[in-house]
Each structure stands twice: as structure tokens, then as C-alpha cells.
């Protein structure tokens, strides 16, 4: 018997009694101009988080829902069951969109890597072995080549939006401007076009996104969200799963912070929404302070960091005279 403190990364021997009388602030108790959003994946906690002091979901991960379906999308297509995949994904998405309506729910389209796809039923037939799946066939690269699978995902999104128009889309791991353009074009063809009630965001997690940010924005998107985990990994050339390099993997590294600052300031100057959904703000409060100073639009954190982050934002805004 052990007790795991997942928020702080600690493990204790035996059973530790945890106090349940901690006060959780309800929505709207502390007002800030910078929006505070939540990173979510598990539907069983969505109703509880929706009651918290949070302005929406800044990162709704697809991977948990796809894993729950348990079968490779191409396998389901081969069996003539694409409708089943669409229905199950739409059902999962509805739980989040409904709980937070009318607040924004930014859904990051599926970013499974090849090894994760191979683990699904039927996956071995459709996925090649890759030496390094982390920088392999993933994200937008898949959407513009495995078009039928992407169309199923878009169909699920459209189905949910028929009732809940607060569901938006965020495109992950976009390596080139042409990949983004191709992905957006496919979305428009499938009836998902930008409007006052439908926004398309892009993850900023590849150094090319930082270097060519203006060109990516020129494709026609409503916002970006910085994925600090992958951005740090690719900027420093570190496998974030390497235990030997763990001490060097740090979002506060000067090269990473310069990249993040450039993204935030560029978006602010162009009037484009800029958020962040990596682990950095949840782990390092000093990064949250800098983000607010630079003018970020919103910050998305893990549910356990909602109240702490709202307090940091409020303090920094008061210091800057933000109203």
C-alpha cells in the first residue's frame, strides 16, 4: 500500500489520509482579464471541473477518447464501420462541450503517434514501426495524407457542434505552412469554416512555428496555443522521456523562453489569440508571471492548479495596472 501525490510527484509508504475540507473556489470569484482555462482528457471529472473558477477548456485531448474506442480508425473503415467511430467520438466530445457550454472548449485533434496507434486493435496492419515516433508520422502530417481518418474526426466535431457551438478545433504538431494550409482546406471542404462561433487554433510546439509564425498565421487561423513540452524538447534536442537528461529538460531555459516571448508578443501585435497549454505554467509560477507581462490571452493548466494560477494572474495584473 502506497500513497501517490500526483500534483507534486511524491510517493509515500502506507495510506496517507488526505483532508477533503480544502476550499475550492467557484467560478467567477476572482476576475482577471487573462483567461484561465483547463487541460482535460477524462470525462469522469468534467462536471466537477466545470464548476471551478475557469473560463473554459484550453486543451481537450483526443487521445483518451480514441484509446477508449480501442480500435484503429483504418481498421474500422476497412470493416465498414466508420459511423461507429464517429458516433463514439462524438459522444465523448459532447460530454465536455455540454458541461462547459457556452464557455469555449478547444479540442486538439488526435495526436496519436505510430506506436500508440499500433497498440489499438488492428493497428499493426496500418502502422509502420518507427525508431522515434515522437518526431515521426503524427499531427498534421497524418491529416493531409490519411484523409479518410481525419474526415471521421471532423464528422464527429460537426455532429457535436449541431447542438453545442462552443466546440473549437486546435491542430497539433504542424511542421510546415503548407501542412497547415492543407489541413484548414480539408476542414473547410468538410463544412468546418471559421466564423464568429467556430475558431481554429494551431499548436506552437515545433521551432519552425516560432521562426515562421507570421506565415503560419497568414494561412488564416484564429489563435495559437504554445505546447511548451514539445517546444522545449525540440528546441533543446532532448527526449523528454530520458531519465539521464531530465535535469537539462527545463522550460525556463533561455532559448525556450525567448521563443515563447516571441510568440506571445507577435500574436499580441497582430491581434491574434495566444494561449499556452503545456506543463510549464502548472509547474513554474514564474513563467505564468512572464506570460501575463508579455500579454498572453489565456493560460491553460491542469485542474489542480486552477486556483493557484488564477491568484498569480490576478497579482501580476494588479501589479501591471491591468483592468
The pLDDT mean sits at 94
Helix content: 40-55%
- The CATH topology of the domain at 62-198 corresponds to TIM Barrel
- Distance between the terminal alpha carbons, to the nearest Å? 50 Å
- The neighbouring-strand order within the major sheet is 9-8-7-6-5-4-3-10
Question: Summed up, what is this model?
Answer:
This protein has 323 residues and is of the alpha/beta class. It has a domain at 62-198: Phosphoenolpyruvate-binding domains (TIM Barrel, Alpha-Beta Barrel), CATH 3.20.20.
Kindly describe this structure.
- There is one protein chain.
- It contains 16 helices and 10 strands.
- It has 323 residues and is of the alpha/beta class.
- Helix 4 crosses helix 8 and helix 15 crosses helix 16.
- The longest helix has 19 residues.
- It is globular and about 60 Å long.
- The model has no long low-confidence stretch (mean pLDDT 94).
How are the SSEs ordered, and which strands pair?
Elements: E1 2-5, E2 10-13, E3 35-40, H1 46-50, E4 56-61, H2 63-69, H3 73-78, H4 82-100, E5 104-108, H5 114-118, H6 123-126, H7 140-143, H8 147-161, E6 167-171, H9 177-189, E7 200-204, H10 207-211, H11 213-218, E8 223-226, H12 228-236, H13 254-270, E9 273-276, H14 280-283, H15 285-294, E10 298-301, H16 306-320
Helix pairs in contact: 4-8, 15-16
